[in-house]
Amino acid sequence: MVVIAADRLERLCLAAFKAAGCPTSEAELASKFLVLANLRGHDSHGVQRVPAYIQSIKSGTIKPGAQISIVKESPSTALVDGNWGLGQATAKRCMELAIEKASKHGVGIVSVFNCNHIGRLADYAEMAIKKDMLGFLTVNVGLSGPGRPISDRGTVAPYGGGKGVLGTNPLCYGIPAGREQPIIFDMATSIWPIGKVQVARARGTRVPDGVMLDGSGKPTNNAADFFGTPRGALLPFGGMVAYKGYGLALVVDILSGALSGFGTGLRAHTNGTFMMALNISYFQPIEEFKAEVDRLIKDCKGIPIYEGFVGIHGEKEVLVPGDPERMLEEKYRKEGVYVDEPTWDQLISTAKSFGIDPDKV
Amino acid sequence: MVVIAADRLERLCLAAFKAAGCPTSEAELASKFLVLANLRGHDSHGVQRVPAYIQSIKSGTIKPGAQISIVKESPSTALVDGNWGLGQATAKRCMELAIEKASKHGVGIVSVFNCNHIGRLADYAEMAIKKDMLGFLTVNVGLSGPGRPISDRGTVAPYGGGKGVLGTNPLCYGIPAGREQPIIFDMATSIWPIGKVQVARARGTRVPDGVMLDGSGKPTNNAADFFGTPRGALLPFGGMVAYKGYGLALVVDILSGALSGFGTGLRAHTNGTFMMALNISYFQPIEEFKAEVDRLIKDCKGIPIYEGFVGIHGEKEVLVPGDPERMLEEKYRKEGVYVDEPTWDQLISTAKSFGIDPDKV
Predict the structure, then answer these.
(1) Residue A147 CB neighbour total at 10 angstroms
(2) Which of 2.40.240.10, 3.40.1670.10, 1.10.1530.10, 1.20.1250.20 would CATH assign to domain A1-65+332-361?
(3) How far is B51 from B58, CA to CA, in rounded Å?
(4) Of A43, A209, A234, A343, whose CB has the highest number of CB atoms within 10 Å?
């Protein structure tokens, strides 16, 4: 691990994106959101993506500076062509559109196609929170795409199915609170993210039962099986009731990929996106709503943990969604961001390939 | 078990609701939806509810014939006072309102308070499907209510928490398909419904690990502990990632109980309700959308199951949400509905208390 100050990491990404041809505002946005993902403990959506993004810019899959086009619109809805711009720029502009609609009409729903990887959904849900609105997003995540054939398997198996058909298909809710911190709930509908399988493979640790199938459709505890030929599959989340995670994955696929026309299942592209901003003041006075959310958070945090509980983040207390990320961000802002060496090496060589001196950013 | 023809069961319920003072249309609606729950395998939301509904009518908690009042409205949104009408009548009227708004403006969102138990959410999502729309509903489920103090514990524990704070807080999506059957996905955010705990207690079977806590906050395998004093708690669904089920339960609580002002967490009443109808044609031509949903369903159903898989419904194939209910309905329409004896006895005595001869309905 290499420990890098967050602002230095951001400057390094910024320089690379600008050198690759991104307008400054886009380079700043992508750098900010990618480093924020590391700060909040979601390294899979962090700076490790920079080389791939830059490769996509070079190959023409990401078109820096591309503007969105509104294809179909009503006061509360819009269908948007992302025109293959940088995903973060597309998503930010579309969430602004949803928020504008919700400001004037109570709710704004925006469905997006021709959209690259947009990063963590939480970043856009937070835009709604800042306007005292409730934000909801889904993306489907596919292996098909421009210049690639329809994939014969996806990443996540349907409940009971022996191979992957679906993506990790995350959903995210952002909910403003009053004195408490907002609820920011961003989850994949698969039991594990792919990043966790990569870590298990690198460390050679045993994958628990109920997480993975190998390429022939058999349950396996070996992370390497996921990356075999044919590719293995993750299971939907839910454990003994994994049909619930599967159902959510289907819903996310349809909201993201069928409503946008971008494709679902084996035909899913990078990120078909569904966004909603809901104007709380159309229902309740915002201060009353926030006070109720505060009470609910206190209801949950006010109770003792059960005997022997240790949470997935190592916590020994009841948290609400968004807390683990806030705790990590506080720590990493002070200590610096922990970047694994292969990622750091790739970042450095990407920067150098543009003639950037990594020690001088 | 007693086996009763569905239409006879419906006539018996109808006669009882009419005798209790429900207008015919409401008595028909409640009877239809309660029997439909049995037909589709969700006995907890079936005719076993009839005696309690009638008790609530007698005590004034359910007010037959009460009409909804729209408190606040915009073209795409409404806040509705259910005025404590029969829950099914309130919810049907509110879903009609959401659909009307979506017909004219692309989306309709309705938030409802002063609302009794509305039954299975799937029934209202199907109303949207029939209009070629996507339906989404949530309700929170609380133990507080008119004439009852704020409860000191709920049914479902937060992730890691030693006592219940939340309800079983279900959510439901209904999505129209083309040649395939629609996706109807109605799930509780708890790992088990209370009905399943009741069955385990009655049969004395061991509850698996990861399902329940006793009243002192310790994990337990004894169903009776759930009904002890103090009351035990169910865990949120998700198994090793139960923080995901917990996050969804919080979101459902807020959408249902904070947006409506009806209360969340320990302050939650019967059913605060959130409903959305989304007009697909504002985004895609409906036939193209349906064709894509069909392709996704075929993607999932077209793959073999993994070695050793037997689904929670006993199935040995990949299904989509809505399939298990359709399979049961087909069977029970032919064979009759299986009603457990205590429920049947209560139904009979309820009918007789109104002078209804159960053999002549």
Answers:
(1) 7
(2) 1.10.1530.10
(3) 11
(4) A234
User: For the stretch A334-352, what's the b/e string if a residue is b when 16 or more beta carbons lie within 10 angstroms of its beta carbon?
Assistant: eebbebeeebbebbeebbe
Q: In angstroms, what separates the C-alpha of A299 from chain B's closest C-alpha?
A: 7
Q: Kindly tell me if the per-residue pLDDT of B145 is higher than 80.
A: no
**Beta-carbon contacts of residue B309 (< 8 Å; ≥ 6 apart):** A160, A162, B316
| Domain at B1-61+325-361, CATH class | mainly alpha
Q: By CA distance, what is B110's nearest residue in A?
A: A283
Q: What is the pLDDT of residues A21-79, one digit of tens each?
A: 999 999 999 999 999 999 999 998 999 999 999 999 999 999 999 999 999 999 999 99
**Which CATH architecture describes the domain A192-234?**
2-Layer Sandwich (3.30)
C-alpha distance from residue B16 to each of A178, B1, B64 (Å): 47, 21, 13
Please check whether the domain covering B66-191+235-282 is classified as CATH 3.90.660.20: no
Residues of B with Cβ-Cβ distance to A292 under 8 angstroms: 254, 257-258, 261, 263-264
How far is Cα A270 from Cα A140, in angstroms, rounded to an integer?
Answer: 7
pLDDT per position as a tens digit, B195-212? 899 889 988 999 999 999
Inter-chain contact A175–B319, Cβ cutoff 8 Å? no
Instruction: Write down the domain spans for chain B.
Output: 1-61+325-361, 66-191+235-282
Q: Is the pTM of this model over 0.95?
A: yes
Who among B76, B109, B289 is closest to A259 (CB)?
B289
**Would the CB atoms of A77 and B106 count as touching at under 8 Å?**
yes
CATH architecture of A75-186+239-283: 2-Layer Sandwich (3.30)
Distances B42 to A33, A206, B319, B328 between C-alpha atoms, Å? 45, 38, 18, 10
Query: What residue of A is the nearest CA neighbor of B214?
Result: A306
What is the ipTM metric for this complex?
Answer: 0.97
Cβ atoms of residues B250 and B256 within 8 Å: no
**Pick from B111, B261, B320: which is nearest to A288 by CB?**
B261
